[in-house]
Amino acid sequence: MTTTVSSTRPSSDAVQAPVPAPLQGATVLVTGGGRGLGATISRRLAVAGARVAITGRNEGALAAWAEQLPNDPVVLAADMADPEAPRALFDRAVEALGSVDVLVNNAGIGHFGASAALTAQDVDALLAVNLRAPLLLAAAAAAHMAGRGGGSVVNITSGLGETGGAGSVLYGASKGGLDAATRALAAEWGPRQVRVNGVRVSLIRTDASAALLDDEAVREGFVSTIPLGRLGTVDDIAEAVLFLAAPASAFITGQILNVDGGTSTTAPAPVAQD
Ligand SMILES: NC(=O)c1ccc[n+]([C@@H]2O[C@H](COP(=O)([O-])OP(=O)(O)OC[C@H]3O[C@@H](n4cnc5c(N)ncnc54)[C@H](OP(=O)(O)O)[C@@H]3O)[C@@H](O)[C@H]2O)c1
Question: Is residue 51 situated within a structural domain?
């Protein structure tokens, strides 16, 4: 007897069909895309088919990284500490790429120390880069994307924005603020098909964290809190960004995805486990 009932199993033709690159033909702006996490993110999205624009303050270093990327990348030097820079940068990205389908707000700086020592200058300098710039960029991007039928914004946040940690009051406040902005922007722009999500990073080895992770006691102590038993990598983060950038996550918005090996959802066990 022949059956015409369809199966969830793909036909052999479908199995053999080439899988399209998830961001084929898309245009992407990655801030801080020339080094650290941003470099791996820009490479992953470019390999996934996108044409990327990468930003940072060092044009020569950006150009050197761009040579490693496929799909005719664009280099846009800008200092996000300048209040006018975010919107001007976004306009330059649209001019260079023709459009921006995906924005990855990755550029960021750290500040760790006792709260009593904080100055107004410290606060203003950090919030300018970690909160003001991504917020203004996301707002500009959302308006642009809405006019084109939709798009995706991915904000790089931190576990310290959620859980707190001694010495992280300023940095944590900036990332917690970015989490809140992510949810508010998702609510505002969802009706225009602009998705806004975050990737919440724990401790990953880059220039920013190398000194900390080179301390074996600190590193081993941190790894012992991670259920998956290892440090995350820049590739772990880039894969999560790709997912939130691409159509695979088309029904996901306003979410902050913890990419931390399970740390954020795990309390210390009351008894040792084998
Ligand atoms: N690594 C971690 O463990 C970790 C953990 C949680 C969250 N994060 C977040 O992940 C993101 C990337 O961090 P990372 O570890 O890759 O840091 P990184 O290696 O220090 O890189 C920081 C990036 O931000 C750019 N940037 C910094 N200040 C800028 C400014 N004023 N104007 C323009 N660009 C600026 C840098 O470019 P130039 O210096 O060339 O301008 C660089 O590309 C940050 O938002 C960070 O808060 C990292």
Answer: yes
